[in-house]
């Protein structure tokens, strides 16, 4: 930001569906605070088309060119996962703050390598975990902190989505080297981040995972039992095999059950609050949020812009952004070794630090893959 203006100069890398469907509309909604000065993508025709549509003056073939020409204050990365590390590091080295799509990195080692480039007061790298920023999640988190619902006891966290076989025709999907994992890494990561945002840290996970029906290197479904630092127990299921799609979290406290059911985003109407029988008619009227803020990118970007102005670390960065990635690494470690993994056991070395997967482990169930029915239906890339 220049001394004469508080407007944040933004560069966007990646001109695909996540850019046009989420990030560019979000940036436009903050038009009084930001100016998109450049767009980069390897597809020059796509850059020209999207830049014309959104009125973006700078058109570039890659992140280096964009950073050199535009000198943005904020770099927004809408690229495939394998490009995150390089893009975030280049942005930070150029002095830009970075907002990167999920998953943050392919490995914990990459995450730490990037974090080492951050400086006190910024620039910082933060990651897209928009579900934690909705008013329903924030109100529930406050109840947990205040203890007004009693102790948390049981939780369910289900990301039951459907991706047809044709979804994996895109070369980088379903591969450890380029996607870093299956639905636990690329789909359920949002709901799992929300689970931990509300209930706090996890301490142990026991998991199983398999490729039951899609012809992929990674899993296409996983199931885990999780112990939380509060003592509560949770189950987590991530699937791309589920025709009736739903994103569902349930929190059972001593005095209430709180649930949210949606698909790719919620508002207050997605939540239900059920008092326990002993609470009855005396249930507090203020359990539900005072305002209705959907779980969109908009609120997260607003907080990020505030953090930039204050020179403060934003949420969903640093250790706060690393927690769910740690959990996914431990989930895969448990699924592949057949034993529980405690968070306290995680180290900054070894197979599941440098990667999410032991190459000796095969998730594929050959007889199921052989009988898979190929379907031409298309689904949105999320």
Automatic annotation (TrEMBL):
Keywords recorded for this protein, A-Z: NAD
Record-annotated Gfo/Idh/MocA-like oxidoreductase N-terminal domain positions: 8-122
Highest taxon of the lineage: Bacteria
SUPFAM superfamilies: Glyceraldehyde-3-phosphate dehydrogenase-like, C-terminal domain, NAD(P)-binding Rossmann-fold domains
Pfam families registered for this protein in UniProt: GFO_IDH_MocA, GFO_IDH_MocA_C3
PANTHER family assigned to the protein according to its UniProt record, in alphabetical order: D-GLUCOSIDE 3-DEHYDROGENASE, UDP-N-ACETYL-2-AMINO-2-DEOXY-D-GLUCURONATE OXIDASE
Protein name, UniProt field: Gfo/Idh/MocA family oxidoreductase
The keyword NAD belongs to this UniProt entry's keyword annotation: yes
InterPro entries recorded: Gfo/Idh/MocA-like_OxRdtase_N, Gfo/Idh/MocA_Oxidoreductase, GFO_IDH_MocA-like_dom, NAD(P)-bd_dom_sf
Sequence ranges assigned to domain GFO/IDH/MocA-like oxidoreductase in this UniProt record: 138-245
